[in-house]
Amino acid sequence: MGGANIWNAVQVAESHSSEIPSSSLTVDHSLSLSDMKPRIVELCKDLFEQWSDLDESDFSLETVSGGITNLLLKVSVREENERVVNLTVRLYGPNTEYVINRERELQAIPHLSAAGFGAKLLGVFGNGMVQSFINARTLTPSDMRKPKLAAVIAKQLRKFHQVEIPGSKEPQLWNDIFKFFEKASSLKFDDSEKQEKYETISFTEIHREVTELKELTDPINAPVVFSHNDLLSGNLMLNDDEEKLYFIDFEYGSYSYRGFDIGNHFNEYAGYDCDYSMYPNKDEQYHFFRNYLNQDQPHEVSDKDLEALYVETNAYMLASHLYWALWALIQAKMSPIDFDYFGYFFLRYDEYKKQKGKCFSLAQSYLSKSETK
Question: How far is CA 246 from CA 75, 112, 116, in A?
Fold first, then answer.
């Protein structure tokens, strides 16, 4: 999606639901919070008529989180009756349309929201969306591995995977990886140091790895489900008092393979620092699988089903490394956010190479065993 397509977001919202207000205003991501405030106030007044007469002092603004692709803001509005309404304004990171299909995201949100996932979509604008505010804290990578929480996440993910999103149910994983590959392999950097690093990467080798991995995973026949595809700790929120868990941010969501969503989530135990010693061991994975496969009686899950999901997840866990490695190269070129995307590429690709032998032989021996049966 090119820059011109940003306006599609507004059109998509209009075509989907006449109730979702839209505005063509944009808000500059790089402004300080105090400079951003008048723009956000103008935006809220443009989207929500009932606030058009409020004073700027009736609005307050704070940063919830700055992910490495988005900026999340909490807006509190004091209405005429003194009631305070909280909203979340999400500003898309600049140039993120190179790696994110916003149209796909906006089509899915109303259906996910109806099924009880994420925040409610209240409005869209030129470079972002307004959603209901979720009163909860963002998880940390170490939270995700706590057995009690891991069980809750697994059960919730199973429910998420049961949501039906209209449109094509073709799995998008390999299409997305090959699209990323096309973009990532034809970049040019103005910064000579970056260009030198870039030239050390063998795209012939990466292409071969992607093709080999696709050939390995195809016979696994993993179920195709609507996947979140980015279940890192920052996209999981918990209200401790109500013990309620929320999945947020569906911008990478698509129909994909079940094992990819789970394997990608396990990779995120490592956090942004990519400490892969935190990757869950077999017992921790089985605990997750039991709760995913049988919410009511996790201990009833058969060894056969556990082994099948273990093989599937750990084969697709490799695909998650390739996906985000290629994504990072595109971001190194496109994103103005101060993050070492090059370093991130090498961390993910090196981990892929480190885990490849073990995961390939696990899948191959499982598949040959199944064939002989």
Answer: 19, 12, 9
Nearest to 59 by CA among 90, 126, 39, 25: 39
Q: Which pair of tokens denotes residue 279?
A: 């990757």
Tokens at 255, concatenated: 């129909």
Q: Give residue-wise pLDDT tens across range 33-89.
A: 999 999 999 999 999 999 999 999 999 999 987 566 678 899 999 999 999 999 999
- What is the layout of strands, in order, in the sheet containing 236-239? 137-138, 236-239, 244-247
Q: Compute the half-sphere exposure of residue 233: CA atoms within 13 Å on the CB side of its CA.
A: 19
* Torsion angle of C-alpha atoms 111, 116, 117, 121, degrees rounded to 10: 60
Does pTM top 0.85 for this prediction? yes
- Angle of helix 341-372 relative to helix 303-334, nearest 10 degrees, comes to 150
DSSP type of residue 58: G
Q: What crossing angle do the helices spanning 192-199 and 341-372 adopt, rounded to 10°?
A: 20
